[in-house]
Amino acid sequence: MINEQIRDREVRLIGKDGEQLGIMSSRDAYGKAQEAGLDLVKIAPKAKPPVCKIIDYGKYKYELARKEKEAKKKQKTIDIKEVRLSPNIGANDLNTKVGAARKFISKGNKVKVTLRFRGREMAHMSNGRHILDEFAESLSDIASVEKAPKVEGRSMTMFLSEKR
Question: Which residues does the UniProt record annotate as the domain Translation initiation factor 3 N-terminal (predicted)?
Answer without folding.
Answer: 2-71
